[in-house]
Design brief:
By secondary structure, the chain is an all-beta fold. It contains no helices and twelve strands. The protein starts with a strand and ends with a strand.
């Protein structure tokens, strides 16, 4: 996370998990979202990989903002896909990024969570 970004809040995701240099959060809702709070009034670049759950090899994923404006149109993600998004924060301090999937929850033996997809190595500049 860049020092100029005041905070990032993940809602509908698990806490951050790590292994080596990789970090990830599981979506535990079919429509989780991320709040970005930033006082720089600039365009922020967000990079991450989205990985489908082991129950569904492909999922339809869309990404919108709080006014339902398309940030990334509906696309089929098979396995893992890298996203690079430019979020215009020139006129606001807070932005919401809403993820949506058509997949059902994935239940993995020994894990009580409803898993939908994974966001890996989330970075903002």
């Amino acid at each position: 996370m860049n020092r100029k970004t005041d905070s990032i809040d993940f809602v509908g995701f698990t806490g951050n998990e790590t292994k080596g240099q990789n970090s990830w959060r599981w979506a535990i809702s079919p429509s989780p979202y991320v709040y970005i709070i930033d006082h720089s009034f600039s365009i922020k670049e967000i990079k991450f990989n989205l990985k489908t759950s082991q129950c569904f090899s492909s999922q339809k994923i869309s990404i919108t903002d709080s006014q339902n404006k398309v940030i990334s149109p509906v696309s089929v993600v098979s396995g893992e896909r890298e996203y690079v998004l430019n979020i215009d924060m020139t006129d606001s301090i807070v932005k919401m990024i809403q993820f949506s999937t058509d997949a059902e929850a994935c239940f993995v033996d020994g894990d009580p969570r409803n898993l939908f997809f994974e966001i890996k190595n989330f970075k903002i500049n």
